[in-house]
Amino acid sequence: MQKVDYKVSIAGWSVDSTQDPKTELVELETFASMDSPVSGCRIALYAPPAAQPGLLQQAIGAAGSALGLGGAGAAGGPPAFSVDVRGQKVKFGDSISIELTAGDNSDAVSKADVQSIQSSFGLTAITGATGMQKLAATRVNQVYSNQTFGQIAKDLAGQASADTGNIEDGSTYPYFVAHESRSVLAHIRELASLEGMDLYFDSSNQLNAATFQKTSADHTFYFGIDILDLELLNVDAPAEHVMVYGESPASNQGSDTWPWLAKDLSPFRGEAGQGARLLAVGDRAVRTKDGAGKYATSKLGAIQDHSASGRLSLMGNPKVQLGDAFEVKSAKQPELNGLFKVTSVRHSFSKSQGYRTIVGFSGQGGALQAGNLLGQAAGQLAGAVGL
Known about the structure:
This protein is α+β, with helices and mostly antiparallel strands. The chain contains six helices and 23 strands. It has helices at 55-66, 131-137, 149-159, 184-195, 289-305, 370-384; strands spanning 4-10, 13-16, 25-33, 40-46, 82-85, 88-91, 95-102, 105-119, 123-129, 142-148, 163-167, 172-178, 198-201, 206-210, 219-222, 227-234, 241-245, 270-273, 278-282, 308-315, 325-329, 338-350, 354-362. It is flat, with a radius of gyration of 26 Å. Residues 70-74 and 365-387 have low confidence and may be disordered.
């Protein structure tokens, strides 16, 4: 059984199990996903109220209030809601950080801000939210001209007061409108899908947008050693051929021109794959043939990637992060072995149940073809963007 330790801090309150194993922490959970705007953490504490003052102290306090002494709550309006944890005030917006250690593996697994506080007799549950919720709650009216994807994404994230990490430049967009009928998250996700990029907040609460091009594993998990449970779903991809049309042709006159109607759009469309199972996509943000071709390639890649998906349950491992590649080995069924991409991570620890890591994944994993298929997909995308 591996030894598990944790460090948790919220504002001025903190616990470190290496220094004090009998802390008030009862359980914690972190959750992050590429496919959901809900990401953050939940911490349950045994935080009973402080001892009440005696009758004499209450009488002295009441007399002081009657004389206007102590001045609490005089001029600044009602105090903000907060709870008291071991003498420290915890309120909305306070920063939460969580670090977990399992055996020799130690890493930060979540950073978030206090979003809700649930109190009951004995237990206090504090939920934190990442910048993903800030993007989902923010709406702006903004026009961008001749800006790259990276420039647009960073500016929109800044307007939502969200921090940014690794955001690739991507294509240049002659004209893009971010309007208040959709959230900032919806706009950035739309552009990320055009670029074939994964969009997520990492364990440092920073927005990342990058293409997945890994052909080797960041982690290797063995059946009978690391893996508690594994489920894999393979489906027949719904499309084998993708065709993309932009707003209307502008590429033969330069990307800075405005589009016009044309009788034949075939010289301006983008295609990837071949076959009768065709997916036709129209997107007004795509205004050049090169952009349409890149979008078609990324769309087909996403369809193929999600034709294999599953859930992996592990002995707690804080090193597993969104966007990592992992390999499964030694499973008895050959289709369960292969290389996959981490699309969601849930770390769960309690003093009664121990520490587990639940990983959601997708990818061209399976038997001996995993590495080759992922490598081919990365190579096709790199070729499409001229790398």
